[in-house]
Amino acid sequence: MGRINVLSFAVANLIAAGEVVDRPASVIKELLENAIDSGADRITVEIHNGGVTFMRVSDNGCGISPEDLPIAIRRHATSKIKEAEDLDGITTLGFRGEALAAIAAVSRMRIISKTADADVGCALEANGGEIISLEERAASTGTTVIVEDLFANVPARRKFLKKDITEATAISVAVEKIALSKPNIGFKLIVDGNLRLETVGDGNLKNTIYAVFGRDFTSKLIKINSEADGIEVFGFIGRSDNVRANRNYQNFFINGRYVKSKTASAAIEQAYVSYIPPEKFPSCVLYINVNPTTVDVNVHPAKLEVKFSNEKPVFEAIYYSVKNALEADVSRPDMTIPGARPRQMGRVSDMQVPVGDNRSEGLKKRQISAELYSAPAAPKAQKAPEEKFIRITAEQYAREYINANRDKGVQANKPIAESVKAAPQIKEPQVSIKQDTVKVEEKTVNVSDTSVAAAPKAPIQEVNTVKAPEASAAEIVDSPKKLEYRIVGEVFNSYVVVELGEKMLLVDKHAAHERVIFEQLKAGMRSKERASQLMMLPIDVMMTSDEVSVISEYREEIEAVGFEFDCGRNTVSVIAIPEGISTKAVPDMLAVIAERIKSNTGTAMITRDIIFEKALYQASCKAAIKAGREYPPEYVEWLVEKLMSLPDITVCPHGRPVAMELSKKKIDHQFERT
């Protein structure tokens, strides 16, 4: 007697169902995809007990006609494709015709549906894949699918389900991913009678991200939108302070379908090199639209993986889009401060002025004197009027003094500090306010003062007294040339406080200097041609046969980086290497290039640039000024000036923030002034 058995249709159906339906979350995913393909713009999901006992998905799509309902739960029955050629360019989420059949085979299912042109709807009930009833029923346009007692007829599979709360969480994640893929559709998720998720469905992606991930995540995003070689990349990527310890916050959508793509993950992670710590992973909600004929979505039972006909252009499109967005971003992380204290006596500005002070009338007229916030003055002492004046740094003046007095014996190579001591004092105009006039006075300034300012370009001249416009006593006339920023000071010999408009920056001087040096070195690397250095003796690198094959196949691209080599069976003999690369790094560099090209996670040029950047990290760190050490003010001034001229410098090469900002509004709120 033969040992080969032909399985019955029922058993074969159960086996096939295991590939599509392995838990309640996969049921919800398949039903949501069908609802989206039906053209619905409002979808509601409701579950009980983790979806094991009850699941319902309702939509307002096109509906199913009564004659199609019995066919819909048969295997390989679908309205998405008809011919084999249709598989070459799939644009719908579903296409296999297995979902409803697989779900019906392992549960009790009811489908209630009505088309727009029908007078009444129709309801189908099935148990274990067998149709029990089919009858007319009142219904609104659209389809509702109810699944109960999942795996009741397959107890061996049901015992592998997790706790209800775990299964409910998996369903929530599935709904969130699909909601992110379709911001133009309103989704609602109800878990055990409680609303868990609701999206607006207005087409605004940021609103959907807000509903799914919350305000904190949404506030730390960078918008991205680019197109190259017919590949469109758009969406949002996380800032350098919006990173995670795993890849759970990486969301990729290929032609509107949520997928897990190694190519996309590798591209975005390599783009973030030098922007985040190496042990962290970037977050994103990224959409990649490609020609449907160049991507195969039929390579995974759950359709979570795709295969590209050519990985390289997809990788490069994502990499350069993300890299350019990161380089253009100028946002800095916000400083967090504790919440304001509970108000007991109202705002400070509303509190009563101490007894004996005659300034209450001035407060009522909004003419608050600076004396209220200054140290107590001596009795009967008159407060000096507030003044503004221009200063120049010691170094700037000393250099001008040297240049102007070369004939008088001042040497140009003399130390600046000695020149400063030899330099005479200068007098410069000072503007002060007294009643209704502006008067020019002279103020003696010692040139050894190293306050931040720019040296005047023209000789200082006397200014006649002029009549000032009507103004309150607290108003001050600004100097004609106002600086965009002001260095307030330095704390702990590590952090520089800078006033910038309505914000206060706290700059980590080591991290800032490290990034400035790194950017300068990187710019120099990009500007010069790909030079090679010839080896006196070839460097033999042992590689596997498939690695040698990849190196040989991409010879032209790798040689453009600066390599020259000959290929053997299991050896690559390197004749020349890129300038600046140590010979010890050559084997590892070639191995990485071969591996990334072979696994479609990079190109030789991108890999070379990343390795070069990593090589510059240590040099930048060693050359940067150190935190905790005292440096001349000129160092700090130069560093802040560089930082202001390069606003896109937000993190050091190791991913730490360069500066954090705190707005005046937040400070006012902390002091209960607003």
Please provide a written account of the structure.
- By secondary structure, the chain is an alpha+beta fold.
- Helix content is 31%, strand content 24%.
- An 8-stranded mixed beta sheet has the order 5-4-3-6-2-1-7-8, with helices on one face. Strands 9-10-15-12-13 form a 5-stranded mixed beta sheet, with helices on both faces.
- A hairpin with a 2-residue loop joins strand 9 (221-228) and strand 10 (231-238).
- Residues 340-394 and 407-483 have low confidence and may be disordered.
Key phrases:
single chain, 674 residues, alpha+beta, 8-stranded mixed β-sheet, 20 helices, 28 strands, globular
Uncertain runs are: 340-394, 407-483
- Overall geometry comes to globular
- What is Rg? 35 Å
Helix content: 25-40%
> What is the count of β-strands?
28
Task: Output mean pLDDT.
Answer: 74
* Tally of individual helices: 20
Strand content: 15-25%
**Order of strands across the main sheet:** 5-4-3-6-2-1-7-8
The separation of the N and C termini measures 91 Å
Largest sheet: 8 strands, mixed
Structural class: alpha+beta
In short:
The chain has 674 residues and is of the alpha+beta class. The protein is built from 20 helices and 28 strands.
List the SSEs and their pairings.
Blueprint: H1 9-20, H2 24-37, E1 42-48, E2 54-59, H3 69-72, H4 99-105, E3 108-114, E4 121-127, E5 130-137, E6 142-148, H5 155-158, H6 164-181, E7 186-191, E8 194-198, H7 205-213, H8 215-218, E9 221-228, E10 231-238, E11 243-244, E12 250-254, E13 257-259, H9 262-271, E14 281-282, E15 284-289, E16 295-296, E17 307-308, H10 311-328, H11 360-364, E18 387-389, H12 394-404, H13 416-422, E19 426-434, E20 437-445, E21 466-467, E22 485-491, E23 495-500, E24 503-508, H14 509-527, E25 532-542, H15 545-553, H16 555-561, E26 564-567, E27 571-578, H17 586-598, H18 604-623, H19 633-645, E28 659-663, H20 664-670
Parallel strand pairs: 1-7, 12-15
Antiparallel strand pairs: 1-2, 2-6, 3-4, 3-6, 4-5, 7-8, 9-10, 10-15, 11-14, 12-13, 16-17, 18-19, 19-20, 20-21, 22-23, 23-24, 24-28, 25-27, 26-27
